[in-house]
Fold this protein.
Amino acid sequence: MTEEAKTLIPSRVICEERALYQVQYGMDSIVWAAISGKMKHQATGRKDYPAVGDWVGIEIPNSADRAIIHAIAPRKSTIYRKQIGSSSDAQILSANVDYTFVTTSLNEDLSERRIERYLAMAWDSETSPIILLTKADLFPEGIDEIVEEMKTTFPNVPIHTLSSDAFDDADFFVQYLKPGTTSVIVGSSGVGKSTLVNFLTGKDRAEDQIATKDIREKDGKGRHTTTSRNLYVSRFGGLIIDTPGMRELSLSDHTQGVDTQFSDVVELTTKCRFSDCKHETEPKCAIKAAIADGSLPLDRWESYLKLEAEVQHGLAKQDKALATEQKRQWKKLTEAGRERGFAKKKT
Ligand SMILES: Nc1nc2c(ncn2[C@@H]2O[C@H](COP(=O)(O)OP(=O)(O)OP(=O)(O)O)[C@@H](O)[C@H]2O)c(=O)[nH]1
Ligand SMILES: [Mg+2]
Ligand SMILES: [Zn+2]
């Protein structure tokens, strides 16, 4: 039977573990699957491998207990991160996601810089971000001020506070976790992602709940408890992907996201008198004018500069990694050429 003649069963990747994927099909059938030899052979990068959230076509051989993934449907969105230094191949965190919940605890570890990075990733991935500030119960003082400040820094992003002892009050989830949608929850280790997912999936009282673990609240350092990405059905009908805490999120490949987040600032820079305006001493600078008349808060301009610098720094690092790799490939090529030349001379 040819590949084309096979009837593939449409299914969704709900868990990824090394080279194996758990896929769900039909109403609630779940099976482990591996990719076909042909897919593996044709893959040129990690983007050609399935990711949690992917729709895939599978075959379930009569004889085997493992299904075979033959195809990945085109992705509506892809949440990815680049790994600087090691390779230029992006790691796909999840696919076909509508909303990204950027989660951070209200403790001392709270960092607008980090949130910015996650937001850039969400926008770059063409998903809508929502900021979740967790553990409100531990920090009863000053939360309103923090939220107000965040609203100025991130004017276009919905911001919600949460506390695990009052999850029932968090009725705003209904508007995001609608049936037919998929959301992903991202953030540092220990901020309470799995605790929330347990509530959202109704596992908080069930035996099959996702493991969660204490962190040292003082320095906010958590041990990584969740180690794989998993997709679950939420109590509101929409799907939700729990992810392991990210150690370091690099911005290098999210320049687009930065521009989206600061579209008003980018727009302003195009209005400067000089196209290469540094917004320092140049006359007719739209940025300086906007800061002066208050339409561009100085804080926001400074965040933009910091983020932009970080992007440039990341890009430079990435360029270096790419250049090294190119040099290596070139060396391989020239060496092969030299060998061939040598061989020719000998004959
Ligand atoms: N006080 C308080 N503790 C919470 C809250 N939410 C979660 N926790 C606790 O924080 C710890 C870490 O929670 P997890 O849900 O495991 O954190 P996580 O983000 O999934 O961590 P990783 O899986 O490592 O990425 C657990 O001990 C939770 O009980 C909250 O709203 N208030
Ligand atoms: Mg977790
Ligand atoms: Zn200017």
